[in-house]
Structure formats: structure tokens, C-alpha cells
From TrEMBL:
Species: Roseibium salinum
Protein name (record): Bbp19-like phage domain-containing protein
Superkingdom of the organism of origin: Bacteria
Domain Bbp19-like phage: 24-88
InterPro entries cross-referenced by the UniProt entry: Bbp19-like_phage
Lineage, broadest ranks: Bacteria, Pseudomonadati, Pseudomonadota, Alphaproteobacteria, Hyphomicrobiales
């Protein structure tokens, strides 16, 4: 398998920006991509307040995770109503699973 690079995707700088945006959108704006985005949002806690007793190192790590997620969001540029739906999907990812009777 040959991994694609941004330099191979476009020769000029302005073409690179458009190419990388298209690549992000094609990956994340699909059914599976939306599921991954919701999982990443829940995993990095982007829509949750950090714990009050978080150490400076853990806080920096969390901030880095959130920054990477924010980068993805900035590349796909979804409208506010879709962002609200993504936030709700991420919230649902953090709730316990009550479908399994063994949890009770």
C-alpha cells in the first residue's frame, strides 16, 4: 500500500488547502465518519468540562486531544445545526448502555 501525501495530492499551496479539506470531508462526512466523529468527541471530552482536580500535565494532554478534534471540525466546516447533532451524538456515547440486562 502506498500512503498518500499532501504534496502528491496537489502541487501548489492553494491546491493543497483545497485537497486536504476535500480529503477530511470525504472521510468524516459519511455514515461511518460521523460515527467516528461522535466517538472521538466523547473520547476527548470536547463537550464536557474537565474534572476540577486535573493535574497540569493531564490538563495539557486533554487540551491537546481537544485541539486535534477542533482541527478536524475546522477542516470539515459543518453548519451549526449539524454541529448540534454531533454534540448530541457525542453525549449519547458517554451514557451507560442500558440495553444489556446484565448491567442491572
Amino acid at each position: 500500500m502506498v500512503w498518500h501525501s499532501l504534496k502528491r495530492a496537489a502541487r501548489r499551496r492553494k491546491d493543497r488547502a483545497a485537497a486536504i479539506e476535500r480529503a477530511y470531508r470525504s472521510v468524516f462526512l459519511s455514515g461511518e465518519g460521523e460515527t467516528v466523529l461522535a466517538d472521538l468527541a466523547a473520547e476527548c471530552g470536547i463537550y464536557q468540562a474537565p474534572p476540577a482536580d486535573l493535574s497540569p500535565r493531564a490538563s495539557g494532554y486533554l487540551d491537546g486531544r481537544k485541539a486535534l478534534y477542533a482541527r478536524i471540525l475546522s477542516m470539515i466546516r459543518i453548519p451549526p445545526e449539524e454541529h448540534a447533532a454531533l454534540q448530541e451524538a457525542a453525549r449519547l456515547e458517554t451514557l451507560p448502555d442500558f440495553d444489556n440486562d446484565e448491567d442491572f
